[in-house]
Write a structure and sequence with these properties.
By secondary structure, the chain is mostly beta strands. The chain contains one helix and eleven strands. It is globular, with a radius of gyration of 15 Å. It binds FE2/S2 (inorganic) cluster (FES). FE2/S2 (inorganic) cluster (FES) binds next to loops.
């Protein structure tokens, strides 16, 4: 498949450390401006597909899913913590096991005019 640059979001819509959910075709992405750089990742949490752009937290170069706190690094997508959320301990263990631990796919970004573009 040919990779193409696609407009993802207006530059002015991204505030530092505030993740946004962006749909391009059938794909859901998470875009965030962190440390002066634009990051684009797979938009659905690798654990149970919560959209990371909705309530995801950016801290120390990582994105944390609001649902069960699965955390990945923004610079290489590597897994830091898998579903540690301990609110209901027995349940928490079960949902941690429901899906295999995975890294977060990343996408290249660039600025073109008023837009952040991603290579898809
Ligand atoms: S859906 Fe994201 S941590 Fe469970």
């Amino acid at each position: 498949m040919v990779m193409e640059w696609k407009n993802a979001i207006r530059v002015s819509k991204l505030k530092p450390d505030k993740p946004k959910m962006v749909n391009i075709g059938f794909k859901t992405l998470m875009l965030v401006l962190f440390n002066g750089e634009y990051h684009a990742t797979e938009g659905l949490c690798r654990h149970m597909r919560w959209p990371l752009g909705l309530g995801g937290k950016v801290k120390d170069g990582c994105i944390t899913c609001p649902l069960h706190q699965t955390t990945h690094k923004l610079d290489d997508g590597s897994l830091v913590e898998w579903s540690p959320f301990p609110l209901f301990p027995p349940y928490g263990k079960i949902i941690g096991k429901l899906s295999k631990k995975k890294d977060l796919p990343l996408y290249e970004t660039r600025i073109e005019g008023d837009y952040v573009q991603v290579k898809l």
